[in-house]
């Protein structure tokens, strides 16, 4: 299917998921951020202005003094002055979060600079029973044979944090368990892609999604790749600034490694090895500005494309990265995944809970069954995919 045959997702359809995000979740997020810290009068006024704007107002650009005004002016010139509901949903989500950071002075010169507005909910999750259970599960998984353990680790990394209108989080189950139904299972193909070629193990990239529980599970996958010779080096790509509520930034990686280091038994060893791997550059941390841009992976800049082209495989985590990979369009769910991902510069493994309208690569029988039995199967987070392309 050609791109112009699959409509770009927007929020102007009554009752649609994008509309509920723009009209319900984003106002709720502003309220939650407002209550996360005792922001000053300037920040409170800016939050009020943003709330009024998304409640039926027209999109206004970033102030000219913003450090990235030029980039966002280029990305947003077709959309400024229009309703939030009428512009592409991928752009609207990204720009809303950038405007939210502007409102709380995240990039400003004053004392609020660099304060993650989502930090309280991230820290609460790290202290949660769900993460405690995950750390015990990772200890238990250490007793499995290596190949069986890799499958279990990949499935454990599927559940993540999904912000609902109340800004709560949803966690997954126990050892190797994903409470979501796996509707596309290409874990064996993923393992095959990760097997070293004749030249030995190379560099694997992991493009992170959420922080917290999901990131801790991702770190356990990275440790497995390094320990068992499936990668000579791993590059973990995170967001350069807080983005899309619970997406991982560098500080979240540090918190995750520390949490692992104080875990039970074999889990503590994961944290200790990762700490050492970061210090020896076997685990390199990267925060390219592209990952906060309102662009698809087909539009990534040359430097990032060249870096990813040098990787043996890339693990792509989460719903947003999936949308950026295949395009934020209303594809028929049976549209083959691999051709849509063929532009990516390395072989790719996508691990994702279904949490938006974008779905590809499902068998027709699965689509028919889900459509007949579940009204919101595309967005409920009750289903997951592990899909591969390239190689």
From TrEMBL:
Please list the GO terms describing molecular function: metal ion binding; phosphatase activity
Alphabetized InterPro entries for the sequence: ARMT-1-like_metal-bd_sf (IPR036075), ARMT1 (IPR039763), ARMT1-like_metal-bd (IPR002791)
Q: Which cofactor does it need?
A: Mn(2+)
List the catalysed reactions: beta-D-fructose 6-phosphate = dihydroxyacetone + D-glyceraldehyde 3-phosphate; beta-D-fructose 1-phosphate + H2O = D-fructose + phosphate
Q: Does the keyword Metal-binding apply?
A: yes
Q: Which SUPFAM superfamilies match?
A: AF1104-like (SSF111321)
- State any GO BP term from the record: DNA damage response
Describe the location of the Damage-control phosphatase ARMT1-like metal-binding domain by residue ranges: 23-368
**Listed Gene3D superfamilies:** Uncharacterised protein PF01937, DUF89, domain 3
Q: Which UniProt keywords apply?
A: Hydrolase, Manganese, Metal-binding
> Could you name the domain of life of the organism this protein comes from?
Bacteria
Q: What family, per the record?
A: Belongs to the damage-control phosphatase family. Sugar phosphate phosphatase III subfamily.
Q: Name it.
A: DUF89 family protein
- Species of provenance: Streptomyces alkaliphilus
């Amino acid at each position: 299917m050609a791109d112009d045959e699959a409509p770009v997702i927007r929020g102007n359809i009554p009752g649609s998921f994008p509309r509920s995000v723009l009209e319900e979740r984003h106002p709720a997020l502003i309220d939650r951020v407002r209550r996360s810290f005792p922001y000053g009068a300037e920040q409170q006024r800016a939050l009020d202005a943003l709330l009024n704007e998304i409640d039926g107002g027209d999109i206004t650009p970033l102030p000219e003094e913003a450090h990235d005004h030029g980039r966002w002016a280029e990305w947003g010139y077709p959309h400024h002055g229009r309703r939030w509901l009428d512009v592409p949903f991928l752009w609207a989500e990204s720009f809303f979060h950038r405007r939210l950071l502007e409102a709380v002075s995240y990039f400003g010169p004053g004392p609020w600079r660099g304060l993650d507005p989502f930090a309280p909910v991230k820290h609460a999750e790290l202290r949660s029973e769900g993460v405690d259970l995950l750390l015990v599960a990772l200890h238990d998984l250490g007793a499995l044979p290596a190949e069986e353990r890799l499958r279990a680790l990949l499935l454990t990394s599927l559940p993540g944090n999904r912000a609902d209108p109340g800004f709560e989080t949803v966690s997954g189950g126990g050892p190797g368990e994903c409470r979501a139904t796996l509707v596309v299972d290409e874990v064996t193909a993923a393992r095959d892609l990760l097997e070293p070629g004749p030249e030995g193990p190379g560099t694997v990239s992991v493009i992170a999604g959420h922080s917290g529980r999901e990131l801790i599970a991702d770190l356990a996958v990275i440790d497995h790749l390094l320990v068992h010779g499936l990668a000579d080096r791993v590059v973990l790509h995170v967001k350069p600034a807080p983005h899309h509520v619970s997406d991982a930034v560098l500080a979240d990686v540090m918190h995750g490694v520390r949490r692992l280091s104080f875990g039970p038994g074999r889990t503590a060893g994961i944290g200790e090895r990762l700490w050492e791997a970061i210090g020896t550059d076997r685990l390199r941390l990267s925060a390219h500005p592209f990952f906060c841009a309102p662009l698809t992976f087909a539009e990534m800049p040359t430097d990032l494309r060249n870096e990813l082209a040098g990787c043996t495989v890339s693990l792509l985590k989460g719903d947003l990265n999936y949308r950026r990979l295949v395009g934020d369009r209303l594809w028929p769910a049976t549209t083959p995944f691999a051709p849509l991902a063929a532009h990516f510069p390395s072989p790719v493994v996508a691990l994702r809970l279904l949490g938006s309208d974008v779905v590809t690569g499902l068998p027709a029988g699965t689509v028919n069954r889900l459509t007949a039995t579940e009204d919101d199967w595309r967005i409920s987070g009750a289903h997951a995919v592990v899909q591969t392309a390239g190689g």
